[in-house]
Amino acid sequence: MAIREIRVDGDPCLRKECKPVTELTDRLKETIDDMFETMYDASGVGLAAPQIGILKQFFVADCNVEEDDEPMPMVFINPEIVFAEGEQTGTEGCLSLPGYQGVVTRAEHIRVRFFDINMEEQEMEAHGFWARCIQHETDHLHGILYKDKVEGELEEVDPEE
Ligand code: NI
């Protein structure tokens, strides 16, 4: 496994429409392992393929960040949000915009259809923080950054915190 370089805002990879994954090769599985390592190393809760320069539709996530939570590493391949309802407004950040955060309104409850690491189709319901993360990461696969949706200004934060 290896830590990959995370592309930051301004890199054209972050603004591209990604292509669906058609075949899960060994190389892609290795990339997914690297993405988990890179995400955990950066204390992130999600990392999408274009953030490491790969223009394919998949992301990794683990939003079980409370102290008593068990880790829940998940990979979402060719994700599609098939249902969304309600609203949540909260602060969001992104590993590709280090040192900033902003307020974004997202759906509170979603259902996402995706392929898992065995390329089997799955559906998952998500609420709250998981739902926010899945929406944010799915946006990355279509060249959308949270700053496009931010309410008001981006705020500077201390990246060491
Ligand atoms: Ni992001």
Structure description:
The protein is of the alpha+beta class and 161 residues long. The chain has one domain (12-156): Peptide Deformylase (Alpha-Beta Complex), CATH 3.90.45. 18% of the residues lie in helices and 32% in strands. It has helices spanning 26-41, 128-140; strands at residues 46-48, 58-61, 74-85, 88-92, 100-106, 109-115, 121-127, 151-156. A five-stranded antiparallel beta sheet has the order 1-2-3-6-7, with helices on both faces. A hairpin with a 5-residue loop joins strand 6 (109-115) and strand 7 (121-127). The radius of gyration is 15 Å and the shape is globular. The two termini are 26 Å apart. Nickel (II) ion is lined by residues 94-96, 136, 140. Nickel (II) ion (NI) binds at residues 94-96, 136, 140.
- Shape category: globular
Summarize the amount of helix as a percent range. 10-25%
**What number of domains?**
1
Q: How many strands? A: 8
Q: Determine the structural class based on helices, strands and strand pairing.
A: alpha+beta
Enumerate the spans where pLDDT stays under 50 for 5 or more consecutive residues. none
Number of helices: 2
| Bound ligands, each once | nickel (II) ion
Q: What is the CA-CA span between the terminal residues?
A: 26 Å
Trace the largest sheet across and list its strands.
1-2-3-6-7
CATH architecture call? Alpha-Beta Complex
- Per DSSP, what share of the residues sits in E-state strands of 2 or more residues? 25-35%
